[in-house]
Design a protein that fits this description.
By secondary structure, this protein is mainly alpha-helical. Helices cover 60% and strands 11% of the residues. The strands form two sheets. A three-stranded antiparallel beta sheet has the order 1-5-4. Strands 3-2-6 form a three-stranded antiparallel beta sheet.
């Protein structure tokens, strides 16, 4: 079946879209929860009551849960912090989320190119669509690498981290679609999930969802 897809008129773009989809996936250990922070310091958790697990970890897709935006990972076992320390950490995360805007725009443009690929292949030819759309996709990957290098200190990244991310999206520009996921997972976060739940728009429901999720993993 895969050989038929690869040999079809839309094979290149179908494979590219599948790569972007698979690349958006990541695993979370039990008790860890991804979340984003709004401009008003409200926390939006991703908590599944019936998670799909692989190797005893929850499979998550950044494109579905946090499309083109920065997210962080909390843990129920993380040490508690004072209200001042927690607010300071959340404020920093909110500022980092704004820094990702330009990368999100580039990722959206890359996604548009991937969607236009099979459309152009259907109207003209597969070779022509690659010739027209792949160069700008590669250019977006290079621009992203340069911007990430220049802003590495704002994200607290080492040179090695930036080089790794840059190499991935340069060698395979399709992965640019998930640049926000790469930046997110490279962030160091040690905030307590239960404490963070009080900053969501529905604290009681969020805490209840976390407890149900824990019960699912523990089998109680």
């Amino acid at each position: 079946m895969l050989e038929d897809i690869a040999a079809s008129r839309f094979g290149f773009w179908i494979v590219a879209l599948l790569m972007a989809g698979f690349d958006s996936a990541f695993l979370l250990k039990p008790g860890s929860y991804a979340f984003s922070i709004s401009s008003t310091n409200l926390v939006r958790f991703r908590v599944s009551l019936n998670p799909f697990t692989m190797r005893s970890k929850e499979l998550v897709s950044s494109l579905l849960s946090f499309p083109f935006q920065l997210f962080f990972v909390s843990d129920i076992d993380a040490p508690d912090r004072t209200a001042r320390e927690l607010f300071k950490a959340m404020s920093r995360m909110r500022r980092l989320s704004r820094q990702v805007t330009v990368f999100s725009v580039l990722a959206i443009l890359a996604t548009i190119l991937l969607i236009l690929g099979p459309c152009l292949a259907a109207m003209v030819s597969n070779h022509f669509s690659i010739f027209i759309l792949f160069p700008p996709l590669y250019a977006f990957a290079l621009i992203t690498s340069v911007l990430l290098w220049r802003r590495r200190r704002r994200f607290g990244f080492s040179k090695g981290t930036v080089l790794k991310i840059s190499a991935e999206i340069t060698l395979c520009p399709v992965l640019l679609v998930n640049i926000s996921k790469r930046i997110s997972l490279a962030q160091m976060s040690s905030l307590n999930a239960v404490r963070l739940a009080s900053f969501s728009d529905a604290p009681k429901q969020t805490l209840l969802a976390i407890r149900e999720n824990i019960r699912y993993h523990t089998g109680e």
